[in-house]
Amino acid sequence: MAEIQVKTFLARLLTPMLVRFKLLNREPELTSFKHLEPGKRYRVTKGFTDYDGRYHPTGESWTFLRHSFLPYDDGLTLFVRLDDGILNTVRLQWRPDEQGPVIDTIEKHIVPN
């Protein structure tokens, strides 16, 4: 009887920890954003400056991997792989006074390569 109680206690204690571990260590889902599809190559056709102040000039190209959105700050992050294989992020803020106009017309700024 005591052995069953110990197993039950351990299962109740460890199960939430295992669930959290699996959630934190899972591979991110590959998700499209507007016309950007994971695994496809794109190039910049209309230069823009991202949230971090980095300019993305016409001709820049990369492979789109996935995106994430942070509702609190209207933050959109594009995860990309540059031509040299380096992983990079393009952070944008979806507000009219920031990169909102770029995001709203992203298909004019970034096209399939």
Largest sheet: spatial strand order: 6-5-4-1-7
Any guess at the CATH architecture? Answer: Roll
Taking the alpha carbons of the first and last residues, their distance comes to: 66 Å
The gyration radius over C-alpha positions equals 21 Å
- Structural class, by secondary structure, is alpha+beta
Q: How many domains make up the coordinates?
A: 1
Indicate the mean pLDDT.
86
The number of distinct helices, counting runs of at least 4 residues, comes to 3
CATH superfamily: mobile metagenome of vibrio cholerae. Integron cassette protein vch_cass4
What is the CATH class? Mainly Beta
CATH T-level topology: SH3 type barrels
Query: What percent of the residues sit in helical stretches (DSSP H or I)?
Result: 25-40%
Strand content: 25-35%
Largest sheet: 5 strands, antiparallel
Shape: elongated
Query: Strand tally, please?
Result: 7
Helix/strand order, N-terminal first:
HEEEEEEHHE
Low-confidence stretches: none
InterPro entries: DUF3601
Pfam families: DUF3601
Protein name: DUF3601 domain-containing protein
Domain DUF3601: 36-104
